[in-house]
Amino acid sequence: MPEIFVTVYDVFMRTYPGFLRATLVTLQLTAVGVILGTVIGLIFALMKISGSKILRGIANTYITIIRGTPLIVQIMFLYFGIVEIYTMDNFWAGSIALGVHNGAYIAEIFRGAIQGVDPGQREASMSLGMNRKQTMSRIVFPQALRRSIPPLGNQFIITLKDSSLVYVIGVSEIFALGNREAAQSYQPFESFLVVALYYLVLVMIFTFLLRLYENRLNVDRA
Amino acid sequence: MLTGENIHKSFGDLEVLKGVDLHVNPREVVVLVGVSGSGKSTLLRCFNFLEMINDGKIIIDGQTVNPKKDNLTKIRAEVGMVFQHFNLFPHKTVLENIMEAPITVKKMKKEDAKKLGLELLEKVGLRDKADVYPSKLSGGQKQRVAIARSLAMQPKVMLFDEPTSALDPELVGEVLQVMKQLAEEGMTMVVVTHEMKFAKEVADRIVMLDKGVVIESADPKTFFENPKNERTRQFIQLVE
């Protein structure tokens, strides 16, 4: 067997207990980022399609700022900004930053999906005597949610990979551990290859689950 | 039952309805005809407040509707509407489509709504399709479900906006049959359609719109055999 496989295998075997713990941290960061991002995204999507100029303005400002600045800057800004007011551990600062960042992108996903629902659906619902709220919650939103699932899944994968950036504030997730491992072992190539493999496998599992879910939705409707 | 007085409606600079008067008696079936762009669909949508009129009055069951003050959702529930493109809810089964509004709007009990839904499906001949999703239905079946869904709110008036225009020719008959049956049961109906045979057989009155005004209003026999307006005569020649 070529030398490289042997050394990668060695690094893998030596480091996997630590990496499994780090994987758990990465998944937790992603989960908080995604859940928080979805909640924020939903709120800002509704603000963006609302009749109020003020709400639309707030939502647009938020989205412009978040999309216009790098995530790594947002993480630093939030971490050091919040620490000034309130002591927070770096895991929470990092996952909140991920959530706030994702919120802007998810807001756009939801807005597009809601506006993509055939206007005839809204009209049919109104013509049956359903009010705006009922029309939104019972007719438009369930359909929009289905349309959002593929782009949301995509966004979740991005979040999983983006979570590596919170290493800058010292969260021990996969990338941080790999970085440390590379420096300590003088085997940077092997270490980062292992890191890449962890992300790749996680993304593949996630993609598979997502496809399973999408298929189930399609079967339901058919 | 349903009256429009001096209805004006513009979209931007384009004035679509230029003072339309239309009075529909209880149990009357009025067929609205006119060339494309004459304002017939817009008029129908105004009657259901899917479009807000710029001027004039709409009176439903003796009550003048004030769109600013009145509860429009309640009024819309009393005026049924059937759309050209059916607009069934694709994420709900046929039966759920029908049960939706009675449950959410009228707060009907689920089992009562189900019973009502099945009765209505029986009426439109689709009892066996209760549990399928709309994507599995033909256009004609979809439209019959849409009619049943609208009937579930027990509307006082039914508006039909070109209900057969999106259908393959062989599916038109089954929808018209259901509408004819409704007319015979005494439902007050306003129908925008190009189906002249239906107009002749079922309508009590045919109203011709042209460039945003009513130019002819007569019983079918007079309308087809002895129209007053030259434009109506041209229209009849065109469609026959």
TrEMBL record, chain A:
One of its GO terms (biological process) is amino acid transport. This is Amino acid ABC transporter membrane protein (PAAT family). InterPro entries: AA_ABC_transptr_permease_3TM, ArtM/GltK/GlnP/TcyL/YhdX-like, MetI-like, MetI-like_sf. PANTHER family: ABC TRANSPORTER MEMBRANE SPANNING PERMEASE-GLUTAMINE TRANSPORT, MEMBRANE COMPONENT OF AMINO ACID ABC TRANSPORTER. It is found in: Cell membrane. It is a multi-pass membrane protein. Belongs to the binding-protein-dependent transport system permease family. GO terms for molecular function: transmembrane transporter activity. Keywords: Amino-acid transport, Cell membrane, Membrane, Transmembrane, Transmembrane helix, Transport. GO terms for cellular component: ATP-binding cassette (ABC) transporter complex. Residues 23-210 form the ABC transmembrane type-1 domain. The chain crosses the membrane at residues 20-47, 59-82, 192-213.
Automatic annotation (TrEMBL), chain B:
PANTHER family: AMINO ACID IMPORT ATP-BINDING PROTEIN, ARGININE TRANSPORT ATP-BINDING PROTEIN ARTM. CDD domains: ABC_HisP_GlnQ. This is Amino acid ABC transporter ATP-binding protein (PAAT family). SUPFAM superfamilies: P-loop containing nucleoside triphosphate hydrolases. The keyword Thylakoid does not apply. The keyword ATP-binding applies. Keywords: ATP-binding, Nucleotide-binding, Transport. GO terms for molecular function: ABC-type amino acid transporter activity; ATP binding; ATP hydrolysis activity. It comes from Planomicrobium soli. The lineage of its organism: Bacteria, Bacillati, Bacillota, Bacilli, Bacillales. InterPro entries: AAA+_ATPase, ABC_ATPase_HisP-typ, ABC_transporter-like_ATP-bd, ABC_transporter-like_CS, MetN_ABC_transporter-like, P-loop_NTPase. Pfam families: ABC_tran. Residues 2-236 form the ABC transporter domain.
